[in-house]
Amino acid sequence: MGPYRHPVPPLWAPWRMQFILEKKPKGCIFCLLPRQKKDRQNLILFRGKNAYVILNKFPYNNGHLMVVPNKHTSILGRLGAKTLSEMMDLAHRSMEYLTRSMGAQGHNVGFNFGHAAGAGILDHLHLHIVPRWMGDTNFMPILAGNKVMVECLQDTYDRLSPLFLSKRKRGPRKRGS
Q1: Residue 90: exposure state from Cβ atoms within 10 A (0-12, 13-18, ≥19)
Q2: Cα dihedral sign for 142, 146, 149, 150?
């Protein structure tokens, strides 16, 4: 009988050490990141008038995006109609681009309000868009408690960024189109 071996070998995810070791900024990251004007480094794919689209730095799936209002609030009712409308338009475009560029077969879209609902950032609401594929829930999360990410964040950014830029050059979408 040899040394004890865990029944499931570990899956190495060295990029998670960045999350553990990085100094957490003071203040709201959803307010701080857009001010830095380092969109690729900060994973900001698109800036609208009232909201922006950003890749989730610690995603549930490849291509996990968030639509974030510029206004700092945790209460949906404090956002005006123009901001809410723009957020829904950006959510629609994000799903379209994820389907076109990554072959997403479905999407989970939603807000997490409050710690009990799974919100990691409580003070600045944001809309999650998680692309899904048939069979993307496999044995890894069930048996090993791990999720396999198949693409680096910067590669996902480079895949999606041109799609958002093409819309920026053409201007806003017209109603009904």
Answers
A1: buried
A2: negative
pTM of the shown model? 0.75
| Structure-token match 């968030």, residue found | 66
Active-site annotation holds for 92 = no
Q: In what order do the strands lie in the sheet with 127-132?
A: 44-47, 51-55, 65-69, 127-132, 106-110
For residue 55 the two structure tokens come to 């890749």
Residue ranges of the domains in the chain?
28-170
Count Cβ atoms within 10 A of the Cβ of residue 98 and give its class: 0-12 exposed, 13-18 middle, 19 or more buried. buried
- In terms of Cβ atoms closer than 10 Å to its own Cβ (0-12, 13-18, 19+), residue 55 is buried
The per-residue pLDDT for range 81-138, each reduced to its tens digit, is 999 999 999 999 999 999 999 999 999 999 999 888 888 889 999 999 999 988 776 5
64, 107, 126, 128: the active-site residue: 126
CATH fold of 28-170 reads HIT family, subunit A (3.30.428)
Does residue 143 have a pLDDT over 50? no
